[in-house]
Amino acid sequence: MIASQVVLGLQTIQSRQVDVTSDPSVLTVGIFNAGNRSNIIPDKAELEGTLRTFNLDMRNFIMRRVKETAEAIAKSGGGEAAVEWISDGYIPLINNVALTNRMVPTLQRVAGADKAIEIKPRTPSEDFSFYAQEIPAMFYFVGITPPGVPPSLAAVNHSPRFQIDETGLLVALRATVHVAFDYMAGAGK
Fold first, then answer.
1. CA–CA separation, 122 and 186 (whole Å)
2. Phi, psi at 29, each rounded to 5°
3. From first to last of its 189 residues, what are the pLDDT tens digits of the chain?
4. CATH topology for 2-88?
5. CA-CA distance, 143 to 169, in Å (whole number)?
6. In the chain, what are the domain boundaries?
7. How far is CA 69 from the centre of its chain?
8. What is the 3-state secondary structure (H, E, C) of the chain?
9. pTM, two decimal places
């Protein structure tokens, strides 16, 4: 019961404590494990989830509020909660603007100008963000939606309905090779 209340309490962080309309974030409890028999009240529960933000200050705020919320709800029910952030999760992935602008013509040449498009910021959980914090980097998606499936109806990568059109991997390989060679040749400088 306490763990269920914690999950509900965490949802108030997103819905009441931050302005997701101006600075999007995602807080999800994706794993909830408790008990081992249907007629025995479990003595503990383990929850796992993910936090995704574009803003480090918001990320730090939400991390603090998760801990405070879980601990307060557990205490109110006579229990205890311990919040552990593994490696503090993933930081926001931010492309280097100059590098991205320099390599867009390469991507347009390889994939087609109509397919090399800029998209709005997303909240993937991606370790590439740590590289991008250390050196100029750019991250791009490769279309792998099966033919005949409108992108708006395609299942996302972490969905059990996800399907991949492997011919998109050839475009990904060509794009990566061309970006590397054009960068090394000084293209766009």
1. 29
2. -95, 110
3. 999 999 999 999 988 999 888 888 889 999 999 999 999 999 999 999 988 888 888 989 999 999 999 999 999 999 999 999 986 567 788 899 999 999 999 999 998 888 888 888 777 677 888 899 899 999 988 888 888 888 788 888 778 888 888 888 998 999 999 999 999 999 877
4. Alpha-Beta Plaits (3.30.70)
5. 9
6. 2-88, 97-184
7. 22
8. CHHHHHHHHHHHHHHHHCCCCCCCEEEEEEEEEECCCCCCCCCCEEEEEEEEECCHHHHHHHHHHHHHHHHHHHHHCCCCCCCCCHHHCCCCCCCCHHHHHHHHHHHHHHHCCCCCCCCCCCCCCCCHHHHHHHCCCCCCCCCCCCCCCCHHHCCCCCCCCCCCCCHHHHHHHHHHHHHHHHHHCCCCC
9. 0.67
Extract the tokens encoding 151. Answer: 């992108």
Q: Which two tokens stand for residue 131?
A: 């590289």
Contact 74, 80 (CB under 8 A): yes
Gap between the Cα atoms of 177 and 58, Å rounded: 36
